[in-house]
Amino acid sequence: MRTTIKEIFTEYAWEYLLVNKGNVPTNHKKVIDAIINCRTDVYGITFYKCGSCGVIHTSFRSCGNRHCPTCQDHKTKQWTQKQLSRELSTNYFMITFTVPQEIREFFLHNQKVAYSALFKASSESIKESTNKSRVFKGSTPGFFGVLHTWGRQIQYHPHIHYVAPGGALNIKDKDWVRSSKDFFLPIFQLSKMCKEKFKKLMQREGKLHLIPSEVWDKEWNVNIQSVGSGRNTIKYLSRYVFKVAISDYRITKVQNRRVYFKYRSRKTGLVIPTSLDVLDFIKKYLLHVLPSGFMKVRYYGFMHTSFQMEFKDIRLIIEGLVAILNKPVKDKIEKVFIPCTVCGKEMKFMFSILPNNIRIRGSSG
């Protein structure tokens, strides 16, 4: 039987807190507490009733913390379905900006400033590069980005994945300007722009002196892949929007104070077993806790909610159906529901009993 992250934290987190007494950030303590108490009576109980067989089910409420591995599945499915409903009939690209190894220590100790600056520098580089392009000049790109802070061995490895439809929107002419299937934007230009913009942002923040000078002599890694339809890429990224650095299924066992887990080699594709001391495992896991309130998914260009044209109209332009722009088009979102364990049909929420000042929400009807 596999060991879960919740079980590892329950058994060893107290020791981790004791060993690192006075050096554990408050948001890390909150994550530890949430993981240990998730789906226990600490967070209350929810009652459901099956709409088909009438059986009443109860469930301990989840903590809702975005770094907890046991309670994000429902949010992941909802986000994935929403993004898939907005998929456009065009080729997609995944654009990845990765910071040099020499600057990762700075990122680790200045997370909020560094992550925000990386989003700003990289997204503005995409916009500026699009505007400089002879193909897209005067048109607006649309893309969304997901911050990802871990590598396959849960090491600290901050980077941003952007998903972009291959083209840009010419609002004036109501036209979609397509890219070629295999080329979107020049990676060397994006790399140079991102580095320069990030450096200026750090200078403005008064933190430039904290960054090793060799960082500015290196090329920042930018990768662009043509991925065909956006469907598979969206499903791939959904693992990182609400899920955590490592999932329970990758952990094979805990033995002699070591956590054994597996990862897939990027070079060979083979599954490789590895292990970490249990306290090192907890430390590495907590390295990926984001600053409170930080948005790890951001939307830009015509994908932003404030964009001047409705998304349904953008879709019609891309599909070459400008003539019917005024006809309503509804995005279809597949309904996600909790199945009854007896008959498999949809269960209806009744009410929740919350801890502390016991409150009841919903109705038993």
Q: Would you kindly provide a written description of the structure presented here, covering whatever features stand out?
A:
The protein is 32% helix and 24% strand. It is of the alpha+beta class and 365 residues long. The strands form four sheets. The chain has a five-stranded antiparallel β-sheet with strand order 8-3-5-4-12, sandwiched between helices. Helix 1 runs antiparallel to helix 2 (26-37), helix 1 crosses helix 8 (278-286) and helix 5 (111-132) packs across helix 6. The longest helix is centred in the first third of the chain and has 22 residues, at 111-132. It is globular and about 60 Å long. The chain starts with a helix and ends with a strand.
Give the topology string: H per helix, E per strand.
Answer: HHEEHEHHEEEEHEHEEEHEHEE
Note the quaternary state here: single chain
Largest sheet: 5 strands, antiparallel
How many distinct helices?
9
Distance between the termini: 40 Å
Briefly characterize the structure.
The chain has helices at residues 5-19, 26-37, 73-85, 104-109, 111-132, 187-205, 230-241, 278-286, 311-318, and strands at residues 45-50, 56-60, 92-98, 142-150, 156-165, 167-170, 175-178, 221-228, 251-255, 258-264, 271-277, 297-301, 347-353, 360-362.
Tags for this entry?
365 residues, alpha+beta, 5-stranded antiparallel sheet, 4-stranded antiparallel sheet, globular
